[in-house]
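Researcher: I'm preparing a figure for a lab meeting and need a structural model of a single chain. I don't have an experimental structure, so a prediction will have to do for now. The sequence is pasted below. Please return the structure as tokens so I can convert it later.
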Amino acid sequence: MSPILTENKDIQISQNLEIHPISGRIGAKILGVDLSANLSDETISEIRQALIKYKVIFFRNQKLDAQGQVAFARRFGELTTAHPTVPSLPGHPEVLDLDYGRTAARANNWHTDVTFVDRPPLGSVLRAIDIPPAGGDTIWANSVTAYQDLPPVLKSLADQLWAVHSNAYDYAEAAVNLSEEIKAHRKVFTSSVYETLHPVVRVHPESGERGLFIGGFVRQIKGLSTTESDDIIRLLQAYVTRPENTVRWRWKVGDVAFWDNRATQHYAIDDYGNQPRRVQRVTIAGDFPVSIDGKHSEAIKGDSSAYNQN
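Model: Understood. Here is the structure written out token by token.
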């Protein structure tokens, strides 16, 4: 049976959770939960319901290690490997170690995780290990309310569109003067090239909500030129990143963020210079995105079965 939520201004108390919404359209803090504990099925169900409602949820002061992070994420479904191309944390095949002070290229662009495969993750669980004293925040955007904001004529257009997503970089962009660090990361990131055709408007498999399914891995709209594609994606993307559709999180060591990858985009802000910033990510295997007329995504290039472990 679904838990009954009682609302008191910005606080919601359910049977097992204390939930504090952060902004009007996306994001909530959940208090009083130890993610390293053996949580009941009822608590896990309530966390999942909060995830679907708020799109990204946050937990402060957690004592998880990599093994505990994997165990918590696994309560919500089968896990992927760390990444289709980037190596995992040694000894932990499901954990992607993002050490931005030393080895990881900074992901300071709006994106949804791993949309270049045919079954992008259901969700991601990110754990903060080393955080700069200032800077290094992450912003999430609600792609469902972005779609709801579209004028009817743009909704009608978006409903019909399909887009090719890929991890391959634009060759003209790659030809500019890049640091050796970024060049090395891109070589690994594109060691296997993936391309997938996804609907621009995706129906959420649990809530039934429609959301814009675009972001940084989109390369072209099917049937349109690159110039036409860029103009349309830029227009739709502007609705996703409107301030009213976003929430910004100031990290502290021990924080855990859990976001619904089917209904969000995010952006890790690169404003912390040479200060260390290290986080670790675990992703939950997802399903094939489905369009409003019931058609699902199709792989064009690359086999993601090893990533999704199926």
